[in-house]
Amino acid sequence: MVRPFRFAVQAACSKSGAEWRDFARRVEDLGYSTLFLADHYLGPGRARRAAHTPEQDLAPIAAMAFAAAVTEKLRIGCRVFCTDYHVPAVLAKEVATLELLSDGRLELGLGGGWSEGEYHAMGIPFERPGRRIAKLEEVVALVKAHFSGQELDCKGEFVNVRGYAGTPPPVRRPHPPIMIGGGKKRVLSLAGCEADIASISNVPFIAVNEDGLSPEQEAARRVGYVRDAAGSRFAALDIESSPYFTEVTEDPKPVLERVASAVRMEAQRLADHPNVLVGPAEAIVERLEARRQAIGFNYVTVQQAQAESFAPIAARLSGR
What we know:
This protein is of the alpha/beta class. The chain contains twelve helices and 13 strands. The N and C termini lie close together (12 Å).
């Protein structure tokens, strides 16, 4: 079975409400499936430079609600909520409200966090990976219980919620599509077991990693973690990835050289990197089809600046 392509835009910046409204409507008109925010909070300064987080003016929940209100079919989501940045019971209520007010257009992304610098800048303890993923597991269970409508009784090390039923009820049952994102075996195995969308984190920009794998092989290994955990349900999952460096151009060489300088990887190796899409439209179409076949990626998210230029490719492949 070949999963049909879907395409999304991840956006984070706007100078005004009118600009954000117009952008959301434009993303919908261009035929993208989803408009994603990200869960980052640092403004310009040394903390953001140290944290290596992208520029982001808009907090996700408010921006998602606004985008849903000014569109009709566009799905909205956050790629992905960091569970440590939110009180679990409050986040469950917020996303249930977004699911209702968007008329069932929410895609709920959840992850265990990664930017130690951002945690420290906001005064949040940065736990070791195992504890962050353990909390993510408990939050996923809480969210699903919240959408069940039954009285909650979720007791764990990180989540202790009980004695009330979660409302409002979901438009899509049993719950909106859940995306779980990450790059390691434990979190991707969780995605295979519990998610509807597995989001594969960027792979390193190195020719060969410590296990002797190329970037393409590392991406395939990560999808393999999802497959092994999902079992028979794997065919129903979307496998999402974001080629962060995307540019539709008839002259890819200078673009690849510029990216190579930024990531310190040889330009000739970048064309096939899973998080790079640079070249003429026809070549990008062929590369996406090849990656779907070889790795499994069918859900592709491009950055805000590329929404217009990439739209013809998305229109050509969506649903195929």
